[in-house]
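ok trying this again, last paste got cut off
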Amino acid sequence: MKIHQKYILRCLELGKKGLGTTAPNPMVGCVIVCDEKIIGEGFTSPYGGLHAEVNAINAVKNKSLLLKSTLYVSLEPCSHHGKTPPCSDLLIKHKIPRVVIGIEDPHEKVAGKGIKRLKEAGCDVTVGVLVHACRQHHKRFLCYHEKKRPYIILKWAETQDGFIAVESDQRVSIPEPFWISNRFSKQRVHQWRSEERAILVGTETVLKDNPKLSTRDWAGKSPIRIILDRNLRIPPSFHVFDRSTKTLVLTQITDASKYINNIDYEVIDFSKPMAREICKILYRYGITSMILEGGSKTLQTFISEGLWDEARIFKGAMHFERGLAAPKISGKLRSTSPILTDTLFIYTHD
Protein backbone atom coordinates (compact mmCIF):
# COMPACT_ATOMS: atom_id res chain seq x y z
CA MET A 1 0.00 0.00 0.00
CA LYS A 2 2.92 2.38 0.65
CA ILE A 3 3.78 2.43 -3.05
CA HIS A 4 0.17 3.35 -3.81
CA GLN A 5 0.38 6.22 -1.33
CA LYS A 6 3.56 7.49 -2.97
CA TYR A 7 1.94 7.84 -6.37
CA ILE A 8 -1.41 9.18 -5.08
CA LEU A 9 0.58 11.89 -3.29
CA ARG A 10 2.13 12.75 -6.64
CA CYS A 11 -1.38 12.89 -8.13
CA LEU A 12 -2.35 15.45 -5.50
CA GLU A 13 0.76 17.52 -6.22
CA LEU A 14 -0.14 17.56 -9.90
CA GLY A 15 -3.80 18.31 -9.25
CA LYS A 16 -2.94 21.52 -7.37
CA LYS A 17 -1.72 22.99 -10.65
CA GLY A 18 -5.36 23.24 -11.73
CA LEU A 19 -6.43 25.35 -8.73
CA GLY A 20 -8.58 28.24 -9.91
CA THR A 21 -8.90 27.05 -13.52
CA THR A 22 -10.78 23.75 -13.62
CA ALA A 23 -14.02 24.59 -11.75
CA PRO A 24 -16.73 23.42 -11.82
CA ASN A 25 -14.67 20.33 -12.69
CA PRO A 26 -12.41 18.89 -9.96
CA MET A 27 -8.65 19.49 -10.07
CA VAL A 28 -7.52 15.91 -10.61
CA GLY A 29 -3.99 14.58 -10.88
CA CYS A 30 -2.97 11.38 -12.68
CA VAL A 31 0.23 9.30 -12.83
CA ILE A 32 0.99 6.27 -15.00
CA VAL A 33 3.65 3.83 -13.74
CA CYS A 34 5.36 0.99 -15.59
CA ASP A 35 8.10 -1.17 -14.07
CA GLU A 36 8.32 1.20 -11.08
CA LYS A 37 8.93 4.21 -13.32
CA ILE A 38 6.58 7.10 -14.10
CA ILE A 39 5.98 7.12 -17.85
CA GLY A 40 3.22 9.72 -17.95
CA GLU A 41 1.70 12.46 -15.80
CA GLY A 42 -1.18 14.86 -16.20
CA PHE A 43 -3.64 17.14 -14.43
CA THR A 44 -7.01 18.60 -15.36
CA SER A 45 -6.85 21.31 -18.03
CA PRO A 46 -8.80 24.57 -17.60
CA TYR A 47 -12.57 24.03 -17.75
CA GLY A 48 -13.66 22.67 -21.12
CA GLY A 49 -10.26 21.10 -21.77
CA LEU A 50 -8.86 17.61 -21.33
CA HIS A 51 -9.12 15.63 -18.10
CA ALA A 52 -6.10 14.48 -16.09
CA GLU A 53 -6.25 10.87 -17.35
CA VAL A 54 -6.24 12.02 -20.97
CA ASN A 55 -3.29 14.34 -20.42
CA ALA A 56 -1.35 11.60 -18.62
CA ILE A 57 -1.97 9.03 -21.39
CA ASN A 58 -1.04 11.61 -24.04
CA ALA A 59 2.26 12.15 -22.19
CA VAL A 60 3.23 8.47 -22.58
CA LYS A 61 5.59 8.24 -25.55
CA ASN A 62 5.43 4.47 -25.99
CA LYS A 63 1.73 3.61 -25.80
CA SER A 64 2.46 -0.14 -25.84
CA LEU A 65 3.71 0.21 -22.27
CA LEU A 66 0.15 0.99 -21.18
CA LEU A 67 -0.65 -2.71 -21.56
CA LYS A 68 1.41 -3.48 -18.46
CA SER A 69 1.06 -0.22 -16.51
CA THR A 70 -0.77 0.99 -13.41
CA LEU A 71 -2.70 4.23 -13.61
CA TYR A 72 -3.04 6.28 -10.42
CA VAL A 73 -5.68 9.01 -10.15
CA SER A 74 -6.88 11.12 -7.19
CA LEU A 75 -10.59 10.86 -8.11
CA GLU A 76 -12.67 8.19 -9.82
CA PRO A 77 -12.48 8.43 -13.65
CA CYS A 78 -15.67 9.87 -15.13
CA SER A 79 -18.12 7.59 -16.93
CA HIS A 80 -20.35 10.11 -18.71
CA HIS A 81 -20.19 12.38 -21.73
CA GLY A 82 -19.71 16.04 -20.82
CA LYS A 83 -17.47 18.46 -22.68
CA THR A 84 -15.14 15.47 -23.15
CA PRO A 85 -15.75 11.69 -23.57
CA PRO A 86 -15.70 9.36 -20.51
CA CYS A 87 -12.21 8.79 -19.11
CA SER A 88 -13.12 5.25 -18.02
CA ASP A 89 -13.74 4.35 -21.66
CA LEU A 90 -10.32 5.71 -22.61
CA LEU A 91 -8.61 3.55 -19.98
CA ILE A 92 -10.49 0.49 -21.26
CA LYS A 93 -9.60 1.34 -24.85
CA HIS A 94 -5.88 1.36 -23.99
CA LYS A 95 -6.28 -1.88 -21.97
CA ILE A 96 -4.62 -0.47 -18.87
CA PRO A 97 -4.68 -3.48 -16.52
CA ARG A 98 -4.54 -1.78 -13.09
CA VAL A 99 -6.10 1.43 -11.79
CA VAL A 100 -5.60 2.87 -8.29
CA ILE A 101 -8.10 5.55 -7.23
CA GLY A 102 -7.86 7.92 -4.30
CA ILE A 103 -11.58 8.41 -3.67
CA GLU A 104 -14.91 7.76 -5.36
CA ASP A 105 -16.56 10.62 -7.27
CA PRO A 106 -19.82 11.76 -5.58
CA HIS A 107 -21.15 13.39 -8.76
CA GLU A 108 -24.51 11.74 -9.50
CA LYS A 109 -23.41 11.07 -13.09
CA VAL A 110 -20.37 9.14 -11.86
CA ALA A 111 -20.76 7.87 -8.23
CA GLY A 112 -19.18 4.45 -8.71
CA LYS A 113 -20.19 4.00 -12.35
CA GLY A 114 -16.64 4.59 -13.59
CA ILE A 115 -15.27 2.01 -11.16
CA LYS A 116 -17.98 -0.47 -12.16
CA ARG A 117 -17.23 0.00 -15.85
CA LEU A 118 -13.51 -0.59 -15.33
CA LYS A 119 -14.11 -3.73 -13.30
CA GLU A 120 -16.56 -5.11 -15.86
CA ALA A 121 -13.87 -4.63 -18.50
CA GLY A 122 -11.51 -6.82 -16.47
CA CYS A 123 -9.43 -4.05 -14.91
CA ASP A 124 -7.94 -4.58 -11.43
CA VAL A 125 -9.25 -1.58 -9.47
CA THR A 126 -8.15 -0.38 -6.02
CA VAL A 127 -10.19 2.38 -4.36
CA GLY A 128 -9.47 4.30 -1.16
CA VAL A 129 -5.86 5.45 -0.91
CA LEU A 130 -4.98 8.48 1.25
CA VAL A 131 -8.69 9.16 1.56
CA HIS A 132 -8.36 12.08 4.01
CA ALA A 133 -5.73 13.83 1.89
CA CYS A 134 -7.78 13.29 -1.27
CA ARG A 135 -10.94 14.63 0.37
CA GLN A 136 -9.05 17.69 1.57
CA HIS A 137 -7.64 18.26 -1.90
CA HIS A 138 -11.07 17.91 -3.54
CA LYS A 139 -12.93 19.78 -0.76
CA ARG A 140 -14.59 22.29 -3.09
CA PHE A 141 -15.88 19.66 -5.52
CA LEU A 142 -17.00 17.34 -2.72
CA CYS A 143 -18.80 20.07 -0.79
CA TYR A 144 -20.69 21.13 -3.91
CA HIS A 145 -21.90 17.61 -4.74
CA GLU A 146 -22.36 16.25 -1.22
CA LYS A 147 -23.82 19.31 0.53
CA LYS A 148 -25.37 20.92 -2.57
CA ARG A 149 -23.68 24.25 -1.92
CA PRO A 150 -20.36 26.00 -2.55
CA TYR A 151 -17.33 25.52 -0.33
CA ILE A 152 -17.48 28.75 1.72
CA ILE A 153 -14.41 30.66 2.89
CA LEU A 154 -14.90 33.59 5.27
CA LYS A 155 -12.26 36.31 5.21
CA TRP A 156 -11.78 39.50 7.16
CA ALA A 157 -9.13 41.67 8.80
CA GLU A 158 -9.47 42.94 12.35
CA THR A 159 -7.50 45.20 14.68
CA GLN A 160 -5.73 44.13 17.85
CA ASP A 161 -8.77 45.29 19.82
CA GLY A 162 -11.24 43.37 17.63
CA PHE A 163 -12.67 45.88 15.18
CA ILE A 164 -13.28 45.26 11.48
CA ALA A 165 -13.90 48.91 10.47
CA VAL A 166 -13.98 52.43 11.84
CA GLU A 167 -17.21 54.16 12.83
CA SER A 168 -19.01 56.25 10.21
CA ASP A 169 -18.01 59.53 11.85
CA GLN A 170 -14.34 58.52 11.68
CA ARG A 171 -14.57 58.21 7.89
CA VAL A 172 -14.32 61.99 7.67
CA SER A 173 -10.71 61.99 8.83
CA ILE A 174 -9.64 58.55 7.55
CA PRO A 175 -9.32 57.87 3.76
CA GLU A 176 -11.60 55.21 2.29
CA PRO A 177 -11.12 52.32 2.22
CA PHE A 178 -9.04 52.07 5.37
CA TRP A 179 -6.67 49.08 5.34
CA ILE A 180 -6.17 47.15 8.57
CA SER A 181 -3.83 44.58 7.01
CA ASN A 182 -0.56 45.30 5.18
CA ARG A 183 0.10 45.15 1.45
CA PHE A 184 1.50 41.62 1.59
CA SER A 185 -1.67 40.37 3.22
CA LYS A 186 -3.65 42.22 0.57
CA GLN A 187 -1.70 40.40 -2.14
CA ARG A 188 -2.43 37.09 -0.42
CA VAL A 189 -6.15 37.91 -0.58
CA HIS A 190 -5.89 38.57 -4.31
CA GLN A 191 -4.21 35.19 -4.70
CA TRP A 192 -7.12 33.58 -2.86
CA ARG A 193 -9.60 35.36 -5.12
CA SER A 194 -7.91 33.82 -8.16
CA GLU A 195 -8.39 30.35 -6.64
CA GLU A 196 -12.15 30.52 -5.99
CA ARG A 197 -15.17 30.65 -8.29
CA ALA A 198 -16.94 33.59 -6.66
CA ILE A 199 -16.66 36.40 -4.13
CA LEU A 200 -19.57 37.77 -2.10
CA VAL A 201 -20.02 41.11 -0.32
CA GLY A 202 -22.94 43.01 1.15
CA THR A 203 -24.43 46.37 0.19
CA GLU A 204 -22.71 48.43 2.89
CA THR A 205 -19.27 47.15 1.97
CA VAL A 206 -19.78 48.25 -1.64
CA LEU A 207 -21.27 51.64 -0.72
CA LYS A 208 -18.47 52.45 1.76
CA ASP A 209 -15.44 51.12 -0.14
CA ASN A 210 -16.50 50.92 -3.82
CA PRO A 211 -14.32 47.78 -4.25
CA LYS A 212 -13.39 46.15 -7.57
CA LEU A 213 -13.22 42.63 -6.07
CA SER A 214 -10.65 41.62 -8.68
CA THR A 215 -7.19 40.01 -8.69
CA ARG A 216 -5.22 43.15 -9.53
CA ASP A 217 -2.27 42.15 -7.33
CA TRP A 218 -2.06 38.55 -8.52
CA ALA A 219 -1.99 36.80 -11.89
CA GLY A 220 -5.19 34.86 -12.41
CA LYS A 221 -8.85 35.08 -13.29
CA SER A 222 -11.05 37.35 -11.19
CA PRO A 223 -13.91 35.57 -9.40
CA ILE A 224 -17.60 35.99 -10.20
CA ARG A 225 -18.88 38.91 -8.12
CA ILE A 226 -21.93 38.16 -5.96
CA ILE A 227 -23.48 41.35 -4.59
CA LEU A 228 -26.18 41.46 -1.93
CA ASP A 229 -28.28 44.55 -2.70
CA ARG A 230 -31.72 44.08 -1.21
CA ASN A 231 -33.18 47.39 -2.39
CA LEU A 232 -30.82 48.12 -5.33
CA ARG A 233 -29.12 51.03 -3.55
CA ILE A 234 -25.72 50.67 -5.27
CA PRO A 235 -25.28 53.26 -8.08
CA PRO A 236 -24.56 51.95 -11.61
CA SER A 237 -21.28 53.92 -11.66
CA PHE A 238 -19.68 51.74 -8.97
CA HIS A 239 -16.80 49.38 -9.84
CA VAL A 240 -18.80 46.20 -9.27
CA PHE A 241 -20.87 47.08 -12.35
CA ASP A 242 -17.93 47.77 -14.68
CA ARG A 243 -18.62 44.49 -16.58
CA SER A 244 -14.96 43.45 -16.30
CA THR A 245 -16.13 40.13 -14.91
CA LYS A 246 -19.44 38.32 -14.45
CA THR A 247 -21.56 39.91 -11.71
CA LEU A 248 -24.67 38.54 -10.01
CA VAL A 249 -26.90 40.76 -7.85
CA LEU A 250 -29.17 39.21 -5.23
CA THR A 251 -32.15 41.44 -4.49
CA GLN A 252 -35.79 41.54 -3.41
CA ILE A 253 -36.71 43.97 -6.21
CA THR A 254 -38.73 42.21 -8.92
CA ASP A 255 -39.04 45.21 -11.25
CA ALA A 256 -36.58 44.34 -14.06
CA SER A 257 -36.69 47.92 -15.38
CA LYS A 258 -34.46 48.83 -12.42
CA TYR A 259 -31.81 46.29 -13.40
CA ILE A 260 -28.53 47.27 -15.07
CA ASN A 261 -27.90 45.85 -18.56
CA ASN A 262 -25.50 42.90 -18.80
CA ILE A 263 -25.65 42.27 -15.06
CA ASP A 264 -27.37 39.12 -13.76
CA TYR A 265 -30.07 39.41 -11.10
CA GLU A 266 -31.75 36.85 -8.86
CA VAL A 267 -34.66 37.59 -6.54
CA ILE A 268 -34.39 36.06 -3.08
CA ASP A 269 -36.72 36.04 -0.09
CA PHE A 270 -34.95 38.00 2.66
CA SER A 271 -37.49 36.83 5.24
CA LYS A 272 -36.04 33.31 5.03
CA PRO A 273 -32.59 32.24 6.36
CA MET A 274 -30.51 34.37 3.99
CA ALA A 275 -27.31 32.32 3.82
CA ARG A 276 -29.28 29.20 2.95
CA GLU A 277 -31.21 31.03 0.22
CA ILE A 278 -27.96 32.36 -1.24
CA CYS A 279 -26.41 28.90 -1.27
CA LYS A 280 -29.40 27.51 -3.18
CA ILE A 281 -28.91 30.08 -5.93
CA LEU A 282 -25.14 29.62 -6.13
CA TYR A 283 -25.56 25.85 -6.34
CA ARG A 284 -27.92 26.36 -9.27
CA TYR A 285 -25.30 28.57 -10.94
CA GLY A 286 -22.68 25.80 -10.62
CA ILE A 287 -20.51 27.81 -8.22
CA THR A 288 -18.36 25.29 -6.36
CA SER A 289 -16.53 27.70 -4.06
CA MET A 290 -16.93 31.22 -2.72
CA ILE A 291 -14.86 33.61 -0.64
CA LEU A 292 -16.99 35.89 1.52
CA GLU A 293 -15.34 39.21 2.28
CA GLY A 294 -18.02 40.96 4.30
CA GLY A 295 -19.07 43.14 5.81
CA SER A 296 -19.58 42.12 9.39
CA LYS A 297 -23.36 41.63 9.13
CA THR A 298 -23.09 39.38 6.07
CA LEU A 299 -20.25 37.37 7.60
CA GLN A 300 -22.15 36.92 10.85
CA THR A 301 -25.23 35.73 8.94
CA PHE A 302 -23.31 32.82 7.43
CA ILE A 303 -21.63 32.08 10.77
CA SER A 304 -24.97 32.06 12.62
CA GLU A 305 -26.52 29.70 10.06
CA GLY A 306 -23.50 27.40 10.26
CA LEU A 307 -22.83 27.74 6.54
CA TRP A 308 -19.07 28.09 6.31
CA ASP A 309 -16.14 25.73 5.89
CA GLU A 310 -13.06 27.84 6.47
CA ALA A 311 -12.28 31.24 8.01
CA ARG A 312 -9.14 33.22 7.18
CA ILE A 313 -8.67 36.09 9.61
CA PHE A 314 -5.92 38.71 9.52
CA LYS A 315 -5.09 40.50 12.76
CA GLY A 316 -3.34 43.78 12.08
CA ALA A 317 -1.02 45.72 14.35
CA MET A 318 -3.26 48.73 14.96
CA HIS A 319 -5.94 49.64 17.52
CA PHE A 320 -9.17 51.50 16.73
CA GLU A 321 -10.50 51.80 20.33
CA ARG A 322 -13.97 52.01 18.83
CA GLY A 323 -15.59 50.92 15.59
CA LEU A 324 -17.51 48.04 14.01
CA ALA A 325 -16.86 44.83 15.95
CA ALA A 326 -15.44 41.83 14.10
CA PRO A 327 -17.68 38.75 13.69
CA LYS A 328 -17.69 36.14 16.45
CA ILE A 329 -16.64 32.69 15.34
CA SER A 330 -15.92 29.32 16.90
CA GLY A 331 -14.03 26.71 14.94
CA LYS A 332 -10.85 24.68 15.01
CA LEU A 333 -7.68 26.73 14.68
CA ARG A 334 -5.65 25.05 11.94
CA SER A 335 -2.72 27.41 11.57
CA THR A 336 -1.21 30.71 12.65
CA SER A 337 1.35 32.47 10.48
CA PRO A 338 3.01 35.91 10.51
CA ILE A 339 2.84 38.18 7.47
CA LEU A 340 5.20 40.99 8.53
CA THR A 341 3.11 43.12 10.92
CA ASP A 342 -0.01 40.93 10.50
CA THR A 343 -0.91 37.49 11.81
CA LEU A 344 -3.05 35.16 9.72
CA PHE A 345 -5.34 32.75 11.59
CA ILE A 346 -7.04 29.95 9.68
CA TYR A 347 -10.00 28.11 11.22
CA THR A 348 -12.09 25.23 9.92
CA HIS A 349 -15.72 24.52 10.76
CA ASP A 350 -15.46 20.91 11.94
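PB: full thing came through this time. The two ends are 29 Å apart (CA to CA).
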